[in-house]
């Protein structure tokens, strides 16, 4: 990146920081709320909630008649017809034809979400080698992909790479863009400010507002592990209270409790990568401490350690899994979690490392409560953050997930 370009990017950051205030972003994804509306609410909040309720019913159940939607939601048929008419006009609901004539009377007209009417852009900043992006439809299906090598860039150079990727995704879209979702490493506040991402050299970076100005569409930015657990919730058939550990450039976790995403009072819930594991020291971490979980588990660290001692591969993976189990055991015990999900390179995580993690958690918690704990790899593979980024936008703009 040229010196002039770096100055321009830095000026954009400074200007955006100056505009950043302690405000809620209208339509932003809100951590802590129940993700899937299922009941009616008070009259003063009814219309927006009931719109989301109708959309959520079709999003999860698929094709339904107006009467089906009324029965499932508890709304009156008049209310459903009114909302459906509005949503059809906006392109968010489509009529798909009539139900077969096996039932008596006039066949009902079936409805569905307009799953291809809008597109969502997703960006994943969690990988240590490249920033990845995709154009998705409302079902989370990836339609187009783009990737920009990271090549060790940090600070303003890394931000310029995000801009480059966002511009390419906009050019690849073929339908109206509902919004752009970004999964970023580090601590991210509800306004999309990356408060701290040591591996990218970012601090107090107003990424959401910078990207919103750049692409001219709604933007949602959240921690990459939080994006990943939202994808698991919407597309991975995960149920109950769960924790997802995301291993990539760094290590982070997302927590879903009682149907709501847990963010914490300082937006750092799940920042387990910078918990020091044990008292025996260890490698220096990007945060300045030594022996953080990230130094044992982050993909670049593990790969480098195995390259230096290929004959010790199994022992290295087992020790990394043990360290992860040491960190997870008190969390499982405190929150009574039923499921732990690992997301990252399967060649590193699946097998020896996962088994060592499972054994360590069970050794360090009460067997009668953790004996049936599920620890598994995600079913969504490398696209989990991209699909989670789409979920954030769909949730923020339509109220469904």
TrEMBL record:
* Name of one Pfam family that matches: ROK
Alphabetized InterPro entries for the sequence: ATPase_NBD, ROK, ROK_cs, WH-like_DNA-bd_sf, WH_DNA-bd_sf
Give the superkingdom in one word. Answer: Bacteria
PROSITE patterns in alphabetical order: ROK
Q: Which family does it belong to?
A: Belongs to the ROK (NagC/XylR) family.
Query: What is this protein called in UniProt?
Result: ROK family protein
